[in-house]
Amino acid sequence: MRSPLRALGLLLVAVLAACDAAPERLAVDWEIFGGQLVDGTGAPPRPGTLWLKDGRILAVTEPGLQPFTAAQRFDATGRVVTPGFIDPHSHGDPEATPAFENFTAMGVTTITLGQDGSSAEVADLAPYRARLEALPLGPNLALFVGHGTLRTLAGVDRDPNPSAEALARMQRLLDAALDHTFGLSSGLEYNPGLWAPERELLALAEVVGRRDRVIMSHLRSEDDDQLFAALDELFAQGRRARVHVAHLKSVYGQGVARGDAILDKLTAAQRAGVRLSADVYPYSASYTGLALLFPAWAKTREQFTEARETRSEELAAYLRARVLARNGPEATLLGSAPYAGLTLAELAERLEKPFERVLIEDLGPQGGSAAYFIMNEDLQRRFIQDPRIAISSDGSPTGFHPRGHGTFAKIIEQYVQAEGALTLPEAVRQMTTLPAALLGIADRGQLAPGLAADVLVFDPAAVRARATYENPQQLAEGFEAVWVNGVLLRRDGAFTGAAGGRVLRPGP
Ligand SMILES: [Zn+2]
């Protein structure tokens, strides 16, 4: 798909370069010169000049050639020039924070919304989409439709045994939603998705496969002892559609060998014909609502109210065991007011009661979100180093977790510069062409003629993820210039105030 565009661009350059008789050179918007191009394919850096026109990369030329006249020039000497990063698993509300500065400050020029089974609760996405298109967006948006949302819209909600008519309704809603979305997201650890039987997931996978979209799944469980069963459930859908493991992790798994065993599981599925992909974020704490800690019979407000009345002791015992298995109350860092920044252990001490009683009496399943320190860094590093696995943030502008502001900077700062666990071209590939391919975004992710002009200029040695668990909403530093669709959003590390993002259109 890209090579005809590239050929056209090269031809254009050749014609213009050879055409001495035509002193009128084509006027373009930007010339980005002097830098080393890391083009997103994994190829080593090479010197070159990028020419942007009308939101696209018109040409990539050898240094020194001047086939065009640029309205504006950017000197990237001593820095690298890369495609903008594509985040395959992110969160946020575009109507609340359309600029998404947390993302663009760390080099992300495309984010994905509607994850983990939950998307805008509208049956017709066309007007919703039009509303988003009118916003002053920082990054581009690639939308997903949530499986849990389809259940709600189809009136299935928490029914564990939906009728054939109800499934047909969900299939029709999904098919219509795929006109505007890159695929289906599922969140099988959350309500109402957790009630879905296998036949429902397979029926929906059939629609996704027919439309050549992808199923992005927050698995039914990420606990180490249940991970393979949860993967098998997704791989069964993978016989009908492309499938993707969101934020691949092992909750309380330990060590490199366990990481390798999980990767072998993915390899075996691929060998069996499953078209699969995955993403990972570079932090050892997860972040989600407290409902994750509660049993399936006490997750919603009404279930919880009833459970507190009738099964209080059983609920307390469940919560105690669950939190202890997840490294204890010291490893649960509350992220919502009024207790943000306190661990569950600290709050229990302050309130002078056992932590499970705090969860029941003071917080509840709807009582906010928390970071859970449940991952092993050595194990997760194996995923980051796997060439099949894209980098995601799973973050948002408002979450009390550093991943929303730090992820892509942390990959450069820690995994490329400090540890040497990834080369720069490989890290850039896992943040550009790899996520573009798995999402089905054909015209972004690479520095090549004809592609959208989402471009970064930075010095890898100067990139800093400043977000911490204590202070998670600090913008990343070092991404000196950021273009989205040819619009310069950031210059010298400051926002220009311009908006360049679009709502991306999926394939037919
Ligand atoms: Zn998730």
Write the layout of secondary structure elements.
Elements: H1 2-18, E1 26-33, E2 36-37, E3 46-47, E4 49-53, E5 56-61, E6 68-75, E7 80-83, E8 85-87, H2 101-104, E9 108-113, H3 125-133, E10 140-143, E11 145-146, H4 147-153, H5 164-177, E12 183-187, H6 198-210, E13 214-218, H7 227-237, E14 242-245, H8 255-271, E15 276-280, E16 285-289, H9 301-310, H10 312-325, E17 332-334, H11 344-351, H12 355-363, E18 369-373, H13 377-384, E19 389-391, H14 403-418, H15 424-430, H16 433-439, E20 455-458, E21 479-484, E22 487-491, E23 494-495
Parallel strand pairs: 1-6, 2-7, 8-9, 9-10, 11-12, 12-13, 13-14, 14-15, 15-19
Antiparallel strand pairs: 1-4, 2-3, 4-5, 7-20, 16-18, 17-18, 20-21, 21-22, 22-23
Radius of gyration: 24 Å
Query: What is the name of the CATH superfamily of the domain at 85-286 and 376-443?
Result: Metal-dependent hydrolases
CATH architect. name of the domain at 85-286 and 376-443: Alpha-Beta Barrel
- The CATH top-level class label of the domain at 85-286 and 376-443: Alpha Beta
Helix/strand structural class = alpha/beta
Number of distinct helices: 16
* Biggest β-sheet: strands ordered side by side in the sheet: 3-2-7-20-21-22-23
General form: globular
Q: What oligomeric state do the depicted chains represent?
A: single chain
Low-confidence stretches: none
Report strand %: 15-25%
Largest sheet: 7 strands, mixed
Mean pLDDT: 95
Measured as a percent range, the helix fraction is 25-40%
Can you tell me the CATH topology of the domain at 85-286 and 376-443? TIM Barrel
Query: What distance lies between the first and last C-alpha atoms, to the nearest angstrom?
Result: 15 Å
The molecules bound to the chains, other than polymers, are: zinc ion
Number of distinct beta strands? 23
